[in-house]
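[agent] plan:
  1. take the single chain provided in the ticket
  2. run structure prediction with default settings
  3. attach structure tokens to the ticket
  4. add a short note for the reviewer (M.T.)
[agent] executing step 1
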Amino acid sequence: SWLDKKWHEKDRLLSHFARHGSFPAPDSRYCRHRVFDTWSHSLESSLVALSRLLILPCMVPILCLLSIPIFWALLCIWLISSIMQRIFPGYDVEQATLSGMFESNSDGNLQS
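[agent] step 2 finished; step 3 output follows
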């Protein structure tokens, strides 16, 4: 069967590699043998990665300066809303309107 042929070919290639330390020369079915020089590529990617790692500590103060104003603004909003909820426990923001907050009496004066 097809699978048995592939297993046999795999075993043949691996036994040749175990004996000679390389795969057999390709026949006409395969593309010609290529040697890839990856040393320069790995060196280049290593230098890029190293430079990124060296830049990272320099970016921490910048990120802190950018994130602190957002943090303080959110903290102030949260504190104000929590204080308002403690002072006015029944206060509902959605139902509060100018007309609902003050009632007028028969004189036309506003009373709270």
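[agent] step 4 note for reviewer: The beta strands are 103-104, 110-111.
[agent] ticket updated
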